[in-house]
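Quick one, probably user error.
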């Protein structure tokens, strides 16, 4: 993980960046830590509240998801953050201000849509964009994964998988693996941006969260991601991004196949 110095409410902090030092903004927020030591608590701070500091990019040891997240204009301890258990729900962005897909107000829906569209618009034209999603009816229950990969030449590739009985987190993680499979099959070696509505997936793969379960799957994906110039972004689900909506359809196709007894 890459980090660089910044200031948050007159405090020295570290924020997550890419290899060039560009802050990794996801849903208007950036992973932040107060310490450069191993096991430091990781928070999510509103990008508008951070000021870049002096100093270059450093690779810091893994941190641990904080018990509370940083909400916009707030300090640590003022909001619940996603845990790392097996039943974390459908990648709900606690503290994002967007609410969950089925219960958003009009204002929340508009903000979530704007944030997702702004994020996609800022991604490089020569990068592969991977939209991933997992689904589960019950948790655990019949589960599936889906993904859509948009290559720089404008072509779209998609895949889905029936997972049998599994948790939603397994579905979300497996969807990222499917996207990497497509990139491998296409022989694509350029910059990759993975977009997921699962904070759990981003946390355990890119932010050093300690997961109690799915450790083998997580380790495999982290190893594959290390071999690529890949960045994972969180975006709200069901905000009208066509590829994201398609990934959801594909994930639910996997669920239906799982209900009929299929898995692979």
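Nope, works fine. Designed sequence:
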């Amino acid at each position: 993980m890459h980090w660089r110095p910044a200031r948050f409410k007159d405090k020295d902090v570290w924020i997550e960046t890419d290899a060039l030092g560009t802050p990794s903004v996801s849903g208007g927020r950036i992973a932040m830590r107060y310490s450069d030591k191993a096991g430091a608590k990781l928070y999510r701070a509103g990008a508008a509240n951070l000021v870049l500091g002096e100093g270059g990019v450093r690779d810091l040891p893994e941190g641990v998801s904080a018990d509370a997240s940083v909400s916009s204009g707030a300090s640590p301890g003022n909001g619940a953050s996603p845990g790392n258990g097996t039943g974390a729900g459908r990648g709900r962005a606690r503290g994002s201000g967007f609410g969950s897909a089925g219960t958003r107000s009009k204002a929340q829906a508009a903000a979530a849509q704007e944030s997702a569209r702004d994020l996609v618009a800022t991604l490089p034209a020569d990068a592969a964009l991977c939209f991933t999603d997992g689904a589960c009816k019950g948790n655990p229950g019949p589960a599936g994964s889906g993904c859509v990969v948009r290559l720089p030449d404008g072509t779209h590739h998609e895949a889905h998988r029936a997972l049998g009985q599994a948790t939603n987190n397994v579905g979300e993680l497996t969807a990222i693996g499917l996207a990497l499979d497509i990139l491998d099959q296409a022989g694509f070696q350029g910059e990759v941006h993975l977009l997921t509505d699962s904070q759990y997936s981003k946390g355990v793969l890119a932010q050093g969260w300690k997961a109690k379960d799915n450790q083998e799957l997580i380790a495999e994906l982290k190893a594959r991601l290390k071999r690529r110039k890949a960045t994972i972004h969180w975006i709200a689900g069901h905000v009208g991004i066509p590829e994201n909506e398609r990934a959801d359809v594909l994930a639910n196709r996997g669920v239906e196949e799982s209900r009929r007894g299929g898995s692979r």
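The first strand starts at residue 2 and ends at 8.
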